Amino acid sequence: MLCYGAAALIALELGCQQVISLPPQVTVATIQPSGNPARPPDCDMPVLRSLPLNRKYQQVAIIEGLGNVFAHEKDVMPSVKKKACEVGADAIVIKESRDQTGENMTGYYINAVAIVYTKPSPAAADGGPTGSAKPAAASRQDVAR
Asked: 20, 30, 88, 113: which has the fewest C-beta neighbours closer than 10 Å?
């Protein structure tokens, strides 16, 4: 029950109103298959605030979560992370996280993108060519031919 301030004494006699909190609503829009199997719903899902610069990745899904008007990020994030686990993501990148009040939505809103890290090709892992190397300059002998 929620009771506040001096009204608590009166509320004891009259009773308090209960606030019913519904779980956050989460939607997933698949961009492309992740190539990974679904992970357990309680998997350890890293949450990034910007796209990774040090690793190659692919975006695999857009995940949107909306909590009620009393919700905060900490209330909505577990549901968003659960959906990312279900799509086999390696991490989620938060694009937007804020209170939202409008004609169509009221509550705490999270917009995230699920990503998977791309694996290097076997040749790149062995130190071989990666396909991104620049062609070697022509030698004088090749030019003379």
From this structure: 20
Q: What is the pLDDT of residues 40-65, one digit of tens each?
A: 999 999 999 999 999 999 999 999 99
- Residue 132, in any domain of the structure: no
Look up the pTM and report it.
0.69
pLDDT in tens, 64-118: 999 998 899 999 999 999 999 999 999 999 999 999 887 777 899 999 999 999 9
Q: How many domains are contained in the chain? A: 1
In 4-125, where does DSSP find H-type helix?
7-14, 73-86, 122-125
Alpha-carbon torsion 30, 36, 38, 43, what sign?
negative
CATH of the domain at 80: 3.30.110
Domain that holds residue 54: 22-121
Q: In Å, how far are 22, 67, 72, 111 from 84, measured between CA atoms? A: 21, 17, 19, 12
92 within some domain: yes
Is 137 within a domain? no
Degrees, nearest 5: CA angle 31-129-116: 20
As beta bridge partners, residue 30 has 61
